[in-house]
Structure formats: structure tokens, C-alpha cells
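Record type: monomer structure entry
Structure origin: computed from sequence
Chain ID: A
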Amino acid sequence: MHRKRSVLFVGDGGNPPILKSLLNDRQIELHAKVKPASVKLSVFSRHLQYFRLAAFAVFSRRKFEAIFIWQQYVGLYYFMISIVYPFYPRPCCVYYIIFQAKPRSLVSWTKRFMMIRMIHSQFVQKAIFLSHCDALYPDISEEKRVLLSTYTERSSYIEERLTNGFIRNDSDYFSGGVNNRDYSFLRRLAESMGDKKFNVACLPKDMARMSPIPQNIHVDCHAFGDAFEELILSTKAVVLPIEDPNVTSGQIVCLRALQSAKPVFITRNNFIADWMPDIASLRFLVMYDELDELKSLLNGFKDSDLHQLGLQARDYFLRHFDEKSFYRGIADIIEAELNRRQ
């Protein structure tokens, strides 16, 4: 009987139990160290947590045949620490790579330079992208990059609430998230739809971008986890104004909305077709270009229409978004890398 090969999973998220079960069937043993880095933490505190996870991976890797990193900044710190401590190198895969290019930004240029150096280094064998439209994707060699756009996850809180609880519509539209959102657009939309109520869950810095805040917008800067999902459950539809249509974002909110039986209206972008190839035929996930177009779309739906679209959204979610299928893709990548090293 062959000895099980061992892999270390390190990061701030994911569902290691599912991946562990799938890898166990392939005679691969998974050990996980996951430390969620809430957006409630300061930037310094989050990155300190990423650094500690990376350090753990570097100084523990001698015990494992491969390393899987969930979070690009953990991967970046793993690379930087490995330069100083290059001992016991192991095959390493980094999931996920998302890069937003900002013209004339020294920080953006530095991040791009370091990310490319990390991926092309001897310490990282595979970098997993969510979209082929990512700004870094063309800069990475084909043998290093992997496109895995099937990300999905399921909220147990939403399932419990739908099964056990009475849910009241407290808002007409909900919007939320912390990355790549155009909240000034949302303010203009609310101003043009004064008879509608908007709930927004964002950070204080995003709240400032909506000032002056119209009376029909309620902003919650402390809605995280279950509280964030409750705001989705208690709305009629979700609106996601994306700032840069080339930067993958909003997937988690989309998943929560579809699972909660809510239609989604999102800025036209270049990444969602990678994730949902049949989006052109989906009536419950609508892309828009301009404010007037979105306003016209929203005004064209009655509450009963949004409810029916929401039921279609949940049905689609249950039929298409399978966590095992997503993690099976990750297991394939890990197994292939291990087999290359035999």
C-alpha cells in the first residue's frame, strides 16, 4: 500500500474539509491552517495575519510534499520569506490572483512587479486566476498560470434562515462589498429613485464616497458575516456597481444573492462570462452599462416580477453551483503538481 502524500493548505478562507475528502480519495492527505482575515481588521492587521500564515507555511513545508496557498498576499509573503529562507522548497500553488492596474500609481506598479516575480520564481509552480481578463494574466507564462473560474460556496446561515425564518423585505435594493465598487454611482441611482429604499453594507471609506448620503440610503459599516447576509435576505434585489469592469469582483455577493433567491443587477464587465458562461440567457442576472439604463430596468420590474426572478436565481444556484465540483478542480491541480514531482 502506498504512503499517502501530504499537502499543507494555508490561507484566509476556503473549505478545507471538502478538499480534504476529495484528496483523501486520491491517497493525498491534507493538513490545513486557516485564519480568516476579516475586513473589520485594519489593513496592517490583515497583512500581519497574512505574513504569519506565510511564515508558518515556509517553516513547516519540510513536513509536506506540497503547499497550497489560498490568498494572493499570503503567497506574496511566502515568496518574500522564501528568498531569505530558501530551504526545503516544495511545489506551491497560489489561489487566487486578482490584480487591478492603476495608471500612474507607484503602489500598483510595485505590486505588479512583485506579483510577477513571485509567480515566475522557483518557489511557486502554479498561479490560479479567476479570469483570463485579469490585468496580470497576459504577463504570466503558460506553464505557470491556471484558469479556474468556477468558484462557488454555500452559506449555511442563508439555508437556515430560508428553512426556519420569516423574512421581511426591509429594502428595495441592497448593495455591498469592499473591493472595486462604485458607490458614487449608487448614490446617483438612489437620488434618481427617491421613492425606493436602498440598504448598503460597506466600509467607512466607501461611505465617504456616497456623501452627501440621500435620505433613502441606509448605510451599515458594521454588517459582516451573518449580518451582511441578513441584509441580502431582506431585500428585493441586489445592485452591484463595479468600478473597473476588468477586475474580478462581486462573486461572493452574487452567490449569496442567488442562494437567497434575489435577482442581481451588475455593471457590464469582462469577467463574469468566465464564471457563468450562459449569462446572456439568464433573466435574473442582468448587466447594465449606464445609470439611465439601470434605472429603466429597475422601474420595469414589479415586486412580483423580482420575486419570480429570485426563485429562478435560487433554482439556478442549486443546480449549477456545486462546491465539490469547484474543489475537484483544485484537487486536480494539486494532484497534477504532485505527480510531476514523482
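Annotation 1: The chain has a mean pLDDT of 94.
Annotation 2: The CA atoms of residues 301 and 307 lie 10 Å apart.
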